[in-house]
Design goal:
The structure is a single chain. The protein is α+β, with helices and mostly antiparallel strands. 39% of the residues lie in helices and 11% in strands. The chain has 7 helices and 5 strands. The strands form 2 sheets. A 3-stranded antiparallel sheet has the order 1-2-3, covered by helices on one side. Strand 4 and strand 5 form a beta hairpin.
Length: 196
């Protein structure tokens, strides 16, 4: 079975009200911690699996993949005002700098953060900042081939060039068409037609 995308996994756990926990190791029995500066993994309960917090996700900000730590931080601070969110991110980054750690929380701008939170909550099905999965790309390609937009076998018209002239209309349908009002173009309707 293929490993599930961490961003999709986070969304599914939020929808199921089974919030993941941050731990200091990948071991499922390790003690959870609320301190993101100490945490190294995000542990999901059902099915049990953990992802390193440095794992890049499909969420793109400034042409760069955002790591799972920054995504989780943004989710935890979803109800906090923007200035408080920025201050919390700076405090956490200072804590990382004090430990001589290469880890860092990426500060998401308002629009990106709002888009991420609505996507994680399930309020929207797509996000302009989230790249599609590889399976989504192959599904798109298959749809293009099936519609004839790209590749595949070219379509053949059902009739030749003169097929329209030989078509007969059902007499009942012709009677209905004759009863309908004829519409002209805008100029004819506004100005009338010139007598010939």
């Amino acid at each position: 079975m293929a490993e599930l995308d961490p961003l999709l996994r986070l969304r599914q756990s939020i929808a199921a009200n089974e919030a993941p926990i941050t731990t200091i190791s990948s071991d499922p029995t390790s003690d959870p911690t609320d301190n993101l500066a100490l945490a190294t993994h995000l542990q999901f309960s059902s099915p049990q699996h953990s992802y390193p917090l440095e794992t890049p996700t499909r969420f793109i900000s400034s042409d760069k993949a955002v790591d799972l730590r920054s995504i989780w931080f943004a989710w935890q601070k979803k109800d906090v005002a923007i200035p408080d969110y920025i201050a919390s991110a700076q405090e956490l980054n200072e804590e990382f700098a004090g430990k001589d750690s290469a880890s860092k929380v990426q500060n998401l701008v308002f629009v990106e953060r709002l888009d991420l939170i609505t996507w994680l909550e399930g309020a929207s099905e797509e996000s302009e900042y989230i790249k599609g999965l590889e399976s989504d790309a192959s599904a798109t390609r298959s749809a293009q081939v099936a519609s004839g937009a790209a590749g595949g076998v070219s379509t053949i018209p059902s009739g030749g060039a003169g097929a329209r002239g030989g078509r007969t209309i059902d007499p009942r349908l012709r009677e209905i068409y004759n009863g309908e009002r004829r519409m002209g173009d805008r100029n004819s309707v506004l100005r009338g037609i010139k007598p010939t």
